[in-house]
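Worked Example 4.2. Consider the chain below.
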Amino acid sequence: MQNSGGKRILVVDDEPDVTELVSYRLRREGYEVEVINDPLQIMGKAREFNPDLFVLDIMMPELDGLKICRMIRADNKLRTVPIIFLTARGEVEDRIKGLESGADDYIAKPFDAKELVLRIGLIFRRMTNDSREPTRRLQVADVLLDEEMHTVTLGEQPVELTATEFKLLKLLMERKGRVQSRENLLVNVWNYDTDTETRTIDTHIRRLREKLAHRASLIETVRGVGYRINEA
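Applying the procedure from the previous section yields the following structure tokens:
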């Protein structure tokens, strides 16, 4: 059993067999788990349970996972909570849509429960490591990142980022002017050392640029290599 630290996970899937399997494996790891089979109950339950992570199916009746993900990202209380999609839709374009809607990770069915547990553990470890790092304020042009407050501002305007987007921007700002390959970003932001789809990086970069608005050009694409952030 890994050290779960009492983390709470909300599993949302309309298939009881799936939620039963996932919840069983996660409880064995020491997590506190709640399940929902009716997606229409998600927001009320989420605000009540206050999860540290969502495991969310995409293909559900009445309210699909992509819409739920966007609802979570628009909620002031839940917007920074990591989301892992667990779904039968494993095509690359479906994966990209999931990441674009605000998810942090994506696992296709049929899935290996051990991999799911590993991915969840990596997300929590990444968040814990971030919180243990010395407090710093990083700035490029008028983009200011405050690690202690876990905030990003553009001028005087707050920029709402997911946990993964924050980690990605922080790494680029820490290594300002130095090119970061997609593979390097996968290892340092997602903690992956496998052949994970590198378009995951491109999707998050695109979302990050959109949120940086008129400062989107700070993040430069180095064709065939990766990305770097430079002063304006």
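The helical segments are 16-28, 42-49, 65-73, 92-100, 113-132, 163-174, 182-190, 199-212. The radius of gyration is 18 Å. Compare this with Example 4.1 before moving on.
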